[in-house]
Structure formats: structure tokens, C-alpha cells
Amino acid sequence: MYPWLTPVWQRLLRGVRAQHLGHGLLIKGMAGLGKRELAGQLANALLCQHTSNAPCGMCHACELTAAGSHSDLHIVGREGRSIGIDAIRELSRIMSESARLGHGKVAIIERAELMTEAAANALLKTLEEPAGEATLILVSSQPERLLPTLISRCQQWLVPLPDPRTVLTWLKEQGAQASAAALSVNQGSPLQTLDYLNAGADDKRLQLLSELSDLAGHPALFARVQATLQEQPVHLVWVQLLLQDALQTALGVQAPLKLDDCRADSVRLARLSPVCLNRLNSELLELRRSLQPGQGRPMNTGLQLGQWLHSLQQALLHS
Q1: Do 27 and 154 share a domain, yes or no?
Q2: In whole angstroms, what is the distance from residue 263 CA to residue 53 CA?
Q3: Residue 83 phi, psi (nearest 5)
Q4: Is 194 contained in some domain?
Q5: Is 235 within 8 Å of 218 (Cβ atoms)?
Q6: Does the first or last residue of the chain, that is N or C, have fewer Cβ atoms within 10 Å of its Cβ?
């Protein structure tokens, strides 16, 4: 188990062994913290045949869970873009039946925020009237998207962001050379940071931000920077963090930079006035919002990014 999960896991385990956990649980926290693994470990403990010492790892139930073949453990939500009412109705039917091994049933709903409203309403009855020792574990990185009536029927277990030093030590143990900046661009998420580093994205970030801040000195970089920004929405997040650091530098604020490995780029952009940097930052934030799904008619991404980049380039040329 990931080291930062230990405090939450120990509290959950005490609840299992004392039989104090409710029949509806919500494990929440930002993406990339290992909530799925935590839910799986909890299910193992709940199904273990030796409750006072769960999970024992030796009983038949523990062996079946480890093999992924426990007949009383059911998982939904791993695939697809939504969780529909049919999947929840089928899960509710299964959970209403008697446990095959006689030690309760457990269902894990991963990415629970993807449930449609109809599916969430269908789940309410199961939460209100659980059958026998049935336990429902909801896992969500966006709990604010869940129905309030659903949340109110669950014990909530928050997986907090771990201390950056813990994460950096763990990443080093995984063979990844991570900086505080790499962790910052991934919002402190250990697993997202590891994927980011393994994909070589950190080098791409450093190159992009260096070229962006040098648009005045090398105008020919414009097309390449624009193309890179269009590749993935996260690239705009990198730029926004750099602008925030530049604004902090321009204002003379003595505080750690979010991207301390891009200090030279921040200094170059800090030649712009705080008013200009604030405007550019606000425009980029609005651009990011308009690119999010469900924001109406699709926009011409290339045109909008081009206009924003041109504005930045002109500001740098006249600074």
C-alpha cells in the first residue's frame, strides 16, 4: 500500500475489526492518490473470515480476493464514460441476494461521479435498505458531482494530499527523479506525477516554457509554441503557473515559486507590468474554461490560442 494511505487505512481497519463501519462508504480525494487500491484493501478486510484480525491473508476469502475471484465482491465503473441505471439496478439485485460464502457482500463503485442521475437515484434505495451484511463503497475524485442525497447516506473518508517530502521520497524509490515543480504541476498527486515523469513530460514542460518566455527574442518559435499548447489542455496549466510566478516576481513577493526550475523564464516574463501579466493570466484562465467539455459550441482552439500568444508576444516586444 502507498505510504500516504496508511493513516486512513489504519482508521478504516479499526472500524472493520470493531464492526463500526456503515453499510455505505464514500472514499474521496483528488485523482492519483490510490483510492482504488484503498477500496480494494477495505473490501478484502470486510470479506475476511476472521473479522477481529482482518485481513488475515490466510483464510479462503482472502485467497479468493487476492486471486480476483471472490464471488461476493463486485466492482463497477472501471470502464465507460458513464455508469447507467441498468448497471446499478443489476448491482442492487446482486447485493440483495445472500452471500455465497456467508460473510457479507461488498460492492465497489469506482469513479462514482460518473453515475447518471437516474443511476444515482436507483442506488439510493440500496443504501437506505441494505440487505444483510452488504457494504457499498463509492470511490470518487469529484464528490461534488454526486447527489447530495447520496452523499448524506454514506460515511465519508477523505484521502488527503500527502506531504510533498513524502511524495518526493516515494518517487525517488520508484526510480523517478522528481522536483518540487514536477509535483506542483500535478497538483501534488503522487501517481499522476509518476506517470508524468515516466512519459517524459517534464522535459517537454521545461522546453515549452523556455520557448514561450523567449518569444520576443525568437519570433520564429511562435508556430511551434502554439502547436505544443494545442496538444493537451495540461500544457495551458503549465503556462498559467509560469504567469503566476512571473506576476509574483514582478510584484517582488518573497515566496517560493510554483515552478522553481523555471526561475529564468519567470524573470523574463516579469519584465511585463503586473497589470499586463494579470490580464494575460485572466485571459488564459477564460480560454481554459471555454475549452472544457460541456461549455456549449466548440471553439476554434487554434485561432483563440494564436490571438492570446500574439498578445503575449507583442507585450514582450514592447517591454
Answers
A1: yes
A2: 52
A3: -115, 110
A4: no
A5: no
A6: N
Is the predicted pLDDT of residue 296 greater than 90, yes or no?
A: no
Helix (H) or strand (E) holding 17: helix 6-17
Number of domains in the chain: 2
pLDDT in tens, 95-104: 989 898 878 9
CATH at residue 253: 1.20.272.10
Cβ–Cβ < 8 Å for 205, 212: no
Residues 6, 10, 11, 15, Cα dihedral to 10°: 150
The model's pTM is 0.87
Is the domain of 135 the same as that of 13? yes
Query: Domain residues for 58?
Result: 3-160
298, part of any domain: yes
CA dihedral 226, 228, 231, 235 (to 10 degrees): -100
Tell me the DSSP string of 207-264: HHHHHHHTTTT-GGGHHHHHHHHHH-THHHHHHHHHHHHHHHHHHT--S--TTGGGHH
Q: In the predicted model, what is the mean pLDDT of residues 226-247?
A: 95
Half-sphere exposure for 306 (CA within 13 Å, toward CB): 7
Q: Which residue has the cell 517560493?
A: 256
